[in-house]
Each structure stands twice: as structure tokens, then as C-alpha cells.
């Protein structure tokens, strides 16, 4: 049905970029070393290497073929050592299509095929094929698994529900993303690295100039920089989550996103280990939440978070509808969390404020005029402690367990009994005296690593109740 | 309140742990001696040596004499048909339940120190966690490994 095919010739270009990027460091190093005496020879050798790399790229494109045969995807590749990789249709877990900017110019797409095996990369990655070809490939590879599933699943929905992010929401997501902090850190880091390359003379005079300026000017400058970073954060979110659309097909979720780089991701429902609602500290007062899921296996993409985003932003009161439509088994009917006992609050306060107290005491002792900084931080950390205690809790109903905890953002995570890999109850002496205990739940995370949820200082009777719930030995 | 697991690990575990602890503490003592020698030749303040001595002495007491015994006393395990139940921890007591159907594989391991006392450790891995039972008699360990491996061979529902 599918003949033996090669990738689109644009793959040569991607191959070339890839080898070039890998050797860029060596090239730059070589350039710096030889730039004075033997630049001519260096250029000669470098161009030789260039041609070699180009040949290599063309050859590896030429030798890379794929076809679908006997219910298998068969890939053959390798220049000197011929490698063949056969992936059975039944074993394919998900097929993701990604189109970067260059892909989109030529109407191409990258096809990544994943099986349950854990590892860093996808099992097979077709760097560049025509978009129509990519879609056809996905359809063809999927048929086996869906046909199988339909036998099990009696009530297959005919219409596939779908939800798309509105521009207003997207903008809101960007402006509340909180990536401003990350960007700021990155910039500070970038600047400290850059410092080495700016000649001392300029650097010193610039610093002198800056010190000579009035305080107001500096404040204005800082505000401008912050606004710039904030706008950058908005742009980043827009690019990443632009046109975010989630669609439910009978046994999988299908997500399309990205303004520049278009990404299509399939999430088989079977692989979802837990589903969570995150209320970040900026979005919570506005009543907005993010929906995420923990998904077993799969590869980790660059710039991807550990949890997969199912929907970047929505109003808290829309969550119920969302779950009813897309993940009915995770829909929450009654979410009256059983809160942490009052007596555990002091643990939370102490834990969140202790590092601040220790560092703050040092600052207060040595830099008396800045003593207000640790005091402000202390108040902030105590408030965080109160919030963490207030938000901690759980709710168990049948096979389903929902827990709520806060680090900075408030997370409400729902998981099923069968998804839990291990259950741990921890207790130290002080906790034991107060009938408190810490609970640790483990589920499968990305890349075959575990993901652990910890709730500290629960009422001991509650941890014991959950231990009994979890135990297979009734 | 659930009862703690019943089985203790091998008594020789204490000896094995002591040897391991001696190796680490030995490094500390070497540093201390080195510092004392340096102080003698270069006339540093004696305080460095005193502090190093106190640290080495204290860690020797804690890690060689106190902790192995406490650790052994706390370490319990029990293997049921449906799940594995483990308790350990000196200051923080932790009790873990690992269902049999979640076990992916079981390993036994034996380093030179454990071998001296005919001991072995059993490592139980799930898709998300690993749990180690540190020192069992050699034959107990392999018997346990085989038993868990057989019990774990239950029909698995989707992962």
C-alpha cells in the first residue's frame, strides 16, 4: 500500500544543519586558535569539512527510506552500517507531527513516532515529509490500533468534540504566564556571561555613567526593561500556544498548537496517569486555571515541561464542562477536600520561613541598612506557609483519589488507584507525637521516570485510611 | 493503624553496615590526620585540628556505632501475595506499599562486603520507583527474588 519512499529533499538541509550545529563548537574553537597565523589553512580545512558534511547529509538522506508493509513501519537507514528498524503498528503509541518555520515554508512536517519504550528520543523520527503525506501516514499507522479499540469500546462518539483557545484568552495567558521571572533570570545570566566579552574600559565607563545617573532614571529604566520582558513573555506564550486546539477522538486526545512551529500531538487516553488543575499565584486571583496531565513514557521535547498541557488557560468554572467533554472519567462532581488538620500549620510555617530566617539573620547582622529586605521576605514566606497549609488536602471516592497541594502554584491532581505504582507513609518523631504523617504517591512520569506527589503533615488517621484504600490486601 | 511488617533483615547487616561506615569515616580520619600533620609543619591554628577531630569522632560514633543498630532495628519487610510492605528509616520512619502487579523486575545484588557475610540485597523496581531490601541471607534473597518475580507475573491491566 505504501511504497518505499524517501524523505523530502529538505531533509538534506536539516541533516546538514544538525551536523553543523554539532561541530560548531569545534569550528569556532579552531577559528579562535588559528585566526592569527594559519587562517588560510584553517579555512581550507574548514571548507573541506563543510563539503564532507554536505556529502554526508546527502548520502544519509539518500539511504533513509521508509515504507509500511505487513502492518509495520519499516525504516532503513545508515550510510556505512545499514540499519533497519521495524515498528509494528500495534506497538505505536502516538504519532506527533511538528512543523517548524522552515517546514511550513515548504509545506512539510516532521513525523515522530513513539512506542511505550522509555528513552530520550522518539522511536522513529521522519525529519521532513510533505504535510499531506504526514497526515496520510498517521492515518495509515493509526488504523490498526483504532480498529482494535473499537471492538472493546461499544459507545464510540460520532462527533469529535473540540475546543480552541480564543485570542483574548491567549493574550491573558501570556500576560499572566509568570515567565517574566524566568526571562529576567535568563537575561541576568546572559549579561553576566556577556560581561566577559565587553572590554573592561567600556564596561567601567558605562558603570560609572550609570552610577552618575539619578535614581529616577534608573527606576524608569528598570520599569522599561520589565515591561519589555513582560511583552517578550506574552510573545513567547503566543508563539507556543497560538491556535491551541484540543480534540477528542474516540480513545485519544489530539492537540494542535503553535503559531510559528506547528505541533500536533496525540495523547492516548490509556497513557494518562493523572490529570491536574493548576492555579498559579498570578492567575488564581483572576479565576483562571491551567489543565495538565501526567503521561507515561514518551520522549521529552526541548522546552517542554514535565507535565503535558491539556489546555493553557480557562476560567475555573469552565473546568467542569471541559472534563465532562474530554475526560469524563476525571470529571469532578463533589470536590470538598478534606483539609489538613490545624495542628500541622506550625510545621508549614516553620518549613517555609526557616531558610529565610537563617539567611535573613545573616543579612540583618552584616548589612543593617538592608534589614527590611529579609523582613519583607519573611512576611512573604510566612504567608506562603499559611497558603500551603490551607490548600493541602485530599478527596477519595471509589477508585479515584484527588490531592491538592501548593508549592507556589496550587495544584489539584486526580488519579486512579490502578495508576499508583507505590504508596509511602513517612513519619518522624515530632510528627508521630502529634499524630501527623507525610504521604508520598508515585506514578509513572515522562521518560520512564517516576513522578511523586507528596503531602506533608496529614492527619495520621487519614494516611492510614488511604493506606487501607491503597492496599491490595483486603 | 496498620501493624508494622514482621520480617527483620539479617543480623549480620549491622556488621556489613559498620564496615561500610568505617570506610567512609576512615576517609574523614585521613583528612583529620593530614590536617594535624599540616598544622604541625606550617603552624596553623590548632582549632582546625580540634574541629576536625570532633567531627570525625562524632561521625564515627553516629555512623559506625549508633545508626547501624537503629537502622537494623527499624528495618522490616513482609511479602504478601498481593503486595510488598516495607518499613525503614532511623529518624524518619517510612512505610511503603508496593503492589505485586506493579512490580516490573526484581534484582539481587552482592558487593564484596555483603559477600563476606553471605548476604545479598534485593531491589524491587516498579515503573516509577525502586525499593531496596538491603541485607538478607544469600539464599533468602534469591528465594525472595524468585517468589516476587513469580507473584508479579499476574495478568497486567493496561499501564
Automatic annotation (TrEMBL), chain B:
> Pfam families, per this entry?
bPH_2
Protein name listed in UniProt? Membrane protein YdbS with pleckstrin-like domain
Residue ranges annotated as transmembrane are 21-41, 47-67
| InterPro entries, sorted | YdbS-like_PH (IPR005182)
What keywords would UniProt list here? Membrane, Transmembrane, Transmembrane helix
* Keyword Membrane in annotation: yes
Species for this entry: Virgibacillus litoralis
Sequence ranges assigned to domain YdbS-like PH in this UniProt record: 72-148
Amino acid at each position: 500500500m505504501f511504497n518505499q519512499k524517501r524523505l523530502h529533499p529538505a531533509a538534506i538541509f536539516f541533516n546538514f544543519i544538525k551536523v553543523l550545529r554539532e561541530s560548531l563548537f569545534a569550528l569556532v574553537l579552531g577559528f579562535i586558535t588559528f585566526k592569527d597565523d594559519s587562517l588560510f589553512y584553517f579555512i581550507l580545512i574548514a571548507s573541506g569539512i563543510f563539503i564532507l558534511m554536505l556529502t554526508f547529509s546527502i548520502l544519509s538522506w539518500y539511504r533513509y527510506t521508509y515504507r509500511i508493509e505487513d502492518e509495520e513501519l519499516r525504516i532503513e537507514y545508515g550510510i556505512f552500517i545499514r540499519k533497519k528498524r521495524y515498528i509494528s503498528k500495534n506497538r505505536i503509541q502516538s504519532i506527533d507531527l511538528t512543523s517548524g518555520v522552515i517546514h511550513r515554508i515548504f509545506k512539510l512536517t516532521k513525523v515522530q513516532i513513539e512506542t511505550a519504550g522509555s528513552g530520550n528520543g522518539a522511536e522513529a523520527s521522519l525529519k521532513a515529509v510533505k504535510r499531506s503525506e504526514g497526515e496520510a501516514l498517521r492515518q495509515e499507522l493509526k488504523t490498526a490500533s483504532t480498529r482494535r479499540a473499537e471492538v472493546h469500546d461499544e459507545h464510540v462518539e460520532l462527533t469529535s468534540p473540540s475546543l480552541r483557545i480564543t485570542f483574548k484568552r491567549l493574550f491573558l495567558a501570556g500576560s499572566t504566564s509568570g515567565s517574566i521571572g524566568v526571562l529576567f533570570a535568563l537575561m541576568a545570566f546572559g549579561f553576566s556571561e556577556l560581561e566577559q566579552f565587553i572590554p573592561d574600559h567600556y564596561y567601567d565607563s558605562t558603570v560609572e555613567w550609570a552610577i552618575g545617573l539619578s535614581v529616577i532614571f534608573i527606576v524608569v529604566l528598570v520599569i522599561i526593561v520589565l515591561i519589555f520582558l513582560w511583552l517578550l513573555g506574552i510573545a513567547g506564550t503566543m508563539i507556543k500556544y497560538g491556535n491551541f486546539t484540543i480534540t477528542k477522538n474516540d480513545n485519544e486526545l489530539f492537540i494542535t498548537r503553535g503559531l510559528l512551529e506547528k505541533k500536533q500531538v496525540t495523547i492516548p487516553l490509556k497513557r494518562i496517569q493523572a490529570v491536574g488543575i493548576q492555579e498559579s499565584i498570578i492567575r488564581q486571583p483572576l479565576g483562571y486555571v491551567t489543565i495538565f496531565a501526567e503521561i507515561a513514557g514518551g520522549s521529552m521535547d526541548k522546552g517542554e515541561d514535565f507535565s503535558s498541557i491539556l489546555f493553557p488557560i480557562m476560567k475555573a468554572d469552565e473546568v467542569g464542562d471541559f472534563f465532562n467533554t474530554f475526560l469524563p472519567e476525571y470529571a469532578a462532581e463533589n470536590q470538598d477536600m478534606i483539609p489538613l488538620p490545624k495542628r500541622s500549620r506550625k510545621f508549614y510555617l516553620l518549613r517555609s520561613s526557616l531558610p529565610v530566617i537563617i539567611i535573613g539573620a545573616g543579612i540583618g547582622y552584616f548589612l543593617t541598612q538592608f534589614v527590611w529586605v529579609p523582613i519583607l521576605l519573611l512576611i512573604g514566606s510566612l504567608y506562603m506557609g499559611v497558603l500551603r497549609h490551607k490548600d493541602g488536602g485530599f478527596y477519595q471516592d471509589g477508585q479515584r483519589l484527588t490531592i491538592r497541594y501548593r508549592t507556589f502554584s496550587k495544584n489539584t491532581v486526580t488519579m486512579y488507584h490502578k495508576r499508583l505504582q507505590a504508596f509511602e507513609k513517612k513519619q518522624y518523631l515530632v510528627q508521630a507525637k502529634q499524630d501527623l504523617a507525610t504521604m508520598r504517591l508515585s506514578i509513572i512520569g515522562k521518560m520512564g521516570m517516576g513522578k511523586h506527589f507528596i503531602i506533608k503533615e496529614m492527619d495520621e488517621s487519614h494516611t492510614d485510611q488511604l493506606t487501607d484504600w491503597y492496599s491490595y490486601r483486603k | 493503624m496498620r501493624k508494622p511488617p514482621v520480617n527483620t533483615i539479617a543480623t549480620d547487616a549491622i556488621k556489613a553496615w559498620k564496615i561500610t561506615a568505617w570506610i567512609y569515616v576512615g576517609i574523614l580520619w585521613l583528612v583529620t590526620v593530614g590536617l594535624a600533620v599540616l598544622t604541625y609543619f606550617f603552624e596553623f591554628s590548632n582549632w582546625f585540628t580540634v574541629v576536625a577531630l570532633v567531627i570525625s569522632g562524632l561521625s564515627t560514633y553516629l555512623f559506625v556505632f549508633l545508626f547501624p543498630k537503629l537502622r537494623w532495628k527499624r528495618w522490616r519487610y513482609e511479602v504478601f501475595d498481593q503486595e510488598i510492605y516495607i518499613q525503614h528509616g532511623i529518624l524518619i520512619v517510612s512505610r511503603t506499599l508496593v503492589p505485586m502487579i506493579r512490580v516490573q523486575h526484581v534484582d539481587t545484588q552482592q558487593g564484596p562486603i555483603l559477600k563476606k557475610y553471605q548476604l545479598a540485597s534485593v531491589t524491587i523496581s516498579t515503573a516509577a520507583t525502586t525499593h531496596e531490601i538491603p541485607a538478607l541471607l544469600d539464599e533468602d534473597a534469591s528465594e525472595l527474588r524468585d517468589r516476587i518475580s513469580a507473584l508479579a507475573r499476574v495478568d497486567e491491566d493496561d499501564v
